Amino acid sequence: MNVLVTGANGQLGSEIKYLVKNNLTSNIKHLTFFFTDKDKLDITKKEEIEKFVKEKDIDLIINCAAYTAVDKAEEEKELSDLINHQAVKYLANISKENDITLIHISTDYVFDGKNYKPYKEDYKTNPQGIYGLTKLKGEEAFINSGARGIIIRTSWVYSTFGHNFVKTMLRLKDRSELNVVFDQVGTPTYARDLAKAILEIIDKNYEKLNNFKAEIFHFSNEGICSWYDFAKAIFDIKSIDIKINPIETKDYPTPAKRPYYSVLNKNKIKKEFNIEIPYWRESLKKMLSFEV
């Protein structure tokens, strides 16, 4: 079976690549992976995707590619839409036409963050910015295509690879103090845990996966914290002595509005695919002890 992974140099794509190349996950020896980035395959060009999937005889696509610069998206609306919406539409339509299964990664930003209990997959969407809006349009394009596969929404992704909150905090570790928002609550997601879950679904539930038509699932690590709690945990685990000051969102204005509450309910994915999800702080410890 031939698997195309788009966005392979991003956080999630890099984690899937690491697990596959080091044989650290499920029984996937029967799979041949094609890891691509924009230089190898530009998913904003329909003809390029069509040519690639036919030449490589692709059976499954894992779309990790996304425009994730949340604040920049407010200015670069067309580029954000091209990658998060139009490219997904191409992937979904081509998947439908060529009998390919699609796994697409989406975000908690499709919600408005005004909830008071963890978001289930069927809760009303109401994105508050361009990034969330274009990701929602991507979901809708997949659903409307009639292609088979699943959408996985996730939140607060971090990894050994790429740019993320954990790396930003560690880069600022030599400061005497830092101000971090405490009134935005969610759950960090270690990209390696999500990568493992995806590979496990492919290995153990492939038939079930093929019976879904753009079914939506939620995945993040277990537990809840604020960005302030997250920062405190990073420095505590690394034994770095730095003062963290909790501040309100209004004291740290950004071009794009952030959701105040973006905790995802994971019951559906755990039940459907029999997946165990680690607690966020345990996964953070693993990431911080890992050297590439």
Automatic annotation (TrEMBL):
Belongs to the dTDP-4-dehydrorhamnose reductase family. Catalyzes the reduction of dTDP-6-deoxy-L-lyxo-4-hexulose to yield dTDP-L-rhamnose. This is dTDP-4-dehydrorhamnose reductase. GO terms for cellular component: cytosol. It comes from Hippea maritima (strain ATCC 700847 / DSM 10411 / MH2). GO terms for biological process: dTDP-rhamnose biosynthetic process. PANTHER family: DTDP-4-DEHYDRORHAMNOSE REDUCTASE, METHIONINE ADENOSYLTRANSFERASE 2 SUBUNIT BETA. Signal peptide: none annotated. Its EC number is 1.1.1.133. CDD domains: dTDP_HR_like_SDR_e (cd05254). Keywords: NADP, Oxidoreductase. The keyword Coiled coil does not apply. Pathway: Carbohydrate biosynthesis; dTDP-L-rhamnose biosynthesis. SUPFAM superfamilies: NAD(P)-binding Rossmann-fold domains. InterPro entries: dTDP_dehydrorham_reduct (IPR005913), NAD(P)-bd_dom_sf (IPR036291), RmlD-like-bd (IPR029903). GO terms for molecular function: dTDP-4-dehydrorhamnose reductase activity.
